[in-house]
Amino acid sequence: MMTPSQAAGSTAGPDDLEDRLRRFATIWSRAIFPVTATSLTRPEFEGHLLPLARQLSDALHTRPFDPGPAQRVGAALVEVHCTDPDALSRTLGVVDAYLVLYCGNDQEPADDSRARCARLQHALAAGYALALRERTLSEQEAIARSALSARSVAMEALHATETRFRAVFEDAAIGIGIADLDGNVLEVNDTLTRMFGGLEHHVRGRKVNEWAHPEDRPQTWNMYEELVRGEREHYRVEKPFYRNDGTVLWTNLTVSLLRDADGLPQYQLALMEDTTERRLLNLRLRYEATHDALTGLPNRTLFFERLEKALAAGDGARFGLCYLDLDGFKAINDSLGHSAGDRLLVEVADRLQSCATAPGEMVARLGGDEFVALTTGRETQCEVTELAARILAALAAPITLEGREISVRGSIGIVEGPAGERTSAEVLRSADITMYRAKSAGGNRFELADPEADARAITRHGLTTALPAALERGEFFIEYQPLVHLGDGRVHGAEALVRWLHPQHGVLGPDHFIPLAEHTGLIVPLGRWVLQEAVRQARFWHEQAEPGCSVPPLRINVNLSPTQLHHPGLVADTVDVLERSGLPPGALCLEVTESALIGADEDLLKPLRQLAEMGVDIALDDFGTGYSNLANLRRLPVRVLKLDRSFTRGMQQHPADPVDRKIVEGIVSLAHSLELAVTVEGVETGVQAEQLRELGCDTAQGWYYARPGPPDRLHTLSLADAV
């Protein structure tokens, strides 16, 4: 195997020689860097050794031979703090093993190179020893001078320190006390004396452990014992003290251990910052942040803290929650004013607080007229319903406001169950949903949470929030159910029925979303869209009718909701839609439920009269369900009565229910006498259709003829009738 120098040969170029020199410096730095006290990194240290390695290499080959550079290399090592004895021995080992190997010349005898290398090692060691001796003497001299100077300075500093300490001790804004290790108070400053009432003898001479307080944290005195035993140097705690007058002094206390010259514990130093006023202020701010300003009850913030704590409890813990909302509170506010409403809330809060006095019970005000009562324990199944009953009983007695006796009612939603299964937000949402279920049932009652009812309510809420975007995204479509003329069996027209193709729930009928649209006001833009689409489709049917066909053009029936009926733009919107489409007004029939027109005044009937005068037919939908006065029909601008299916259900079989038959016969006779056409909904059998024809009904719709479907199917039915 060849050595690095043999591999290079005598013809090695400068780059190869430099590379071998760097390898030697790398080996050298790895050997002595671990025992060198330097701030340099190892690559930086290696860069510092590279010129020293070059000096050794040059000295190895220089003629005549001179070991002087090696002596300077040894001194240079001392300059870079390679003063550890191992640094010299490792350096000599590296030079002995690798200098000739990496930096030798194959043109020279090996024995000569080894001899020169040995002399370089001796010179390096001599230079290293000489430099180290000079450095040591210099440091000793500097230390001696520093010691003399330090002694003088120390005397001056001791005096200055004593003076400063006395000034700090006496004039400090915090209380300072010094005690021995037995706890005897030896010295206190004026500030600490004032903090404890102003009498020094009440402080000096007492023992530290006499200042125990019931609110001390358990670890406070453990840390004190560790300090006097010398196991810790200091500790910091918030600690209360009793003053002589019985009041409590709250402090931020820092206790430090003072040791003697030999490092043994000698004294303890206490620094006390008076935090009493700050603590009282924080307690006040905390109270204001967690309690309702009007009623003094815990507010939403504190309630959620307690609820989350109750839900996090384990080991079979349960909880019960009553969510209360006052019935008709807005009417009281509107009639008597907000001041009276506030007094009512204060009285209600007092009554609620008297109902929740057992351990684990609390009452809070969430805001407005909404309150919650929480009970915890292991028997909350019975306790929570008893709590709800007590609340309703407490509210039963009238409250006197403005000289009037006001009856207070409330609706309560109850959620009860084991801890750890639901989050606080889920519990409150379920209670809120249940409370509204109690309110919808008439109020002044409580209801228990029902997961299925919660799911339905959450679905309704999801549909409500999705409605506006659904209209923008075009998720609604219309199906058409034919209206059949009972006289000749031909398709007379169709009713437009809107559907919602929901991304998650599939196709939803109007019962699922029309009430939600009514509640949110979206029924107006949705109704206008339905009218536009239905009229556009009817116009298309008119255009497809063959010239000279004996079958009249199909009519389109569109439902109007009560909200649309009250909308001021109803007439203008309808006129605009008809004019844009070119559909004759007589081909449009607007259906209005009977319940929407019960007791209607002239202002409500005016837009319907205007539409009727234009030629638009008005149909009274679900007739017979609103219990309206039949004589009232004469003042309504209607042309069609749509008889509710409840009157004809008994006619689906043969023989028909005689009572139903008589009722239908009477309604048809009355309608015809008023020149009104009669349409029957829900026709499902041929027997039923035949009997209705015999009774004189004009048109009918129902599954017997066709289910609601796409518009092209209706046009097909119409063409079939024409054929």
UniProtKB/TrEMBL annotation:
Domain of life: Bacteria
GGDEF domain sequence ranges: 317-451
Sequence intervals crossing the membrane: none
Pfam families assigned: EAL, GGDEF, PAS_4
Domain PAS: 161-231
UniProt cross-references to Gene3D superfamilies, sorted A to Z: 3.30.70.270, EAL domain, PAS domain
UniProt domain PAC: residue ranges: 235-287
All residue ranges annotated as the EAL domain in the record: 460-722
UniProt cross-references to InterPro entries, sorted A to Z: Biofilm_reg_signaling, EAL_dom, EAL_sf, GGDEF_dom, Nucleotide_cyclase, PAC, PAS, PAS-assoc_C
PANTHER family per the UniProt record, alphabetical: BIOFILM ARCHITECTURE MAINTENANCE PROTEIN MBAA (PTHR44757:SF2), DIGUANYLATE CYCLASE DGCP (PTHR44757)
Name used for this protein in its record: EAL domain-containing protein
Native species: Streptomyces marianii
